[in-house]
Amino acid sequence: MFAATRNAMDSDKRVLIGMSGGIDSSAACMILQEQGYEVIGLTMRMWDLPRHFPNEGQTIPQFAIEAKELAEKIGIEHHILDVRDDFKRTVIKSFTDEYLKGNTPNPCVLCNKQFKWHYLLQEANRLNCQWVATGHYARISRKNNRFILNRGADPKKDQSYFLWRLGQQELARTIFPLGDITKEEIKQYVEKKGFHEKVEKKESMEVCFIPGDYRDFLREQLPDLDREVTGGYFIDAAGRKLGQHKGFPFYTIGQRKGLEIALGKPMFVTRINPIKNTIRLGERSELLTRNMVITDVIETIPGILNTSEPVDVQIRYRSAAIPATLRKGETPNEWIVCFQSDASAVTPGQSAVIYQNDCIIGGGIIADQRLLKKYAL
User: What is the pLDDT at residue 8?
Assistant: First the structure.
């Protein structure tokens, strides 16, 4: 039904695919099969939640059971890999550490590079697979003998934002079977294949290891957190105290709801200071900026971040990229982004992904806006 994903680089068509049990990875498995690949499924058991075990006495998470059942129905080999300890040491530890720094992390970005692809490639080598694959909506191209990550064809489902840290080692061996396909086409395809339950199943849009409010998760992971961060103040732009807050890790830039303070007009979190344990509040206009600093910068192609050429910078997953230009900072790993229109709620800890013509040419982590002072911006 769908065109071949990679002109197969046809010498070896054995591929290991990450399977979650959901519609996207299931469709990716079947598409690869139709394209002539020998498909092997891998489900990673990263973090157990109560909803993963709906039946009494169940010892394997429901999503792993569903992935295994799909593999059996379409006749492919399937493995379950228990990586819970490593996931807690890497992804969960980073998640909680970032909140303690006053940042709002994006755990999916870290997980994809340092965790999912790490284990996919490790297991692919063990199982003698040339390729790895996932059900992400993204595409890969080549330029100047390097692999480039591109947006997926479906603008509503494009997931390249979460994958920007993947390097040449990962991209050279990765296949994205869904990159050229829309979500609606996938639903129709899976329905025709007879897997109606996959189409009807509600998809989770939340962080995979958080069952509800992230604040409750932080308290669970850090039992002394409330005691350690209590007693801070809301302040205004002039530093005047407006009232007490519940602790700086429980707030994020741009937040309006849940502040539990009445000031006679809508107020938003505009700045978080973890050292002073203060939360600055301001009106919506105070969230707007034309500049920001990014750190931990990665250039997809060395030297391509030409500061004279316009780019598009996406600062959160569900927002449109904003036209901008770039300036090098004081260190090679620090860049200044100059937006051509106002950006709202620039949030430290989130990813800033840099595009040109739907190709990712680089990215970085948004830094605290206070860094702008040293550049007189």
Answer: 45
pLDDT < 50 positions in the chain: 8-10
Output phi, psi for 276, to 5 deg.
Answer: -90, -10
The two three-digit tokens of residue 180, written as one number: 């050229």
pLDDT score, position 231? 84
- Give me the catalytic one of 29, 108, 129, 208: 208
111 is catalytic: yes
Helices marked H in 101-173 — which ranges? Answer: 107-111, 117-126, 168-171
> What are the distances in angstroms from CA 263 to CA 192, 233, 309, 344?
56, 14, 44, 22
Strand 359-366 relative to strand 322-328: parallel, antiparallel, unpaired? unpaired
CA distance 110 to 107: 5
Which listed residue (111, 129, 338, 359) is catalytic?
111
C-beta of residue 272 within 8 angstroms of C-beta of residue 102: yes
Q: What is the CA radius of gyration of the chain?
A: 22
The pTM score is 0.94
What pLDDT, on a 0 to 100 scale, did the predictor assign at position 302? Answer: 79
Active site residue 108: no
DSSP secondary structure code for residue 259 in this structure: -
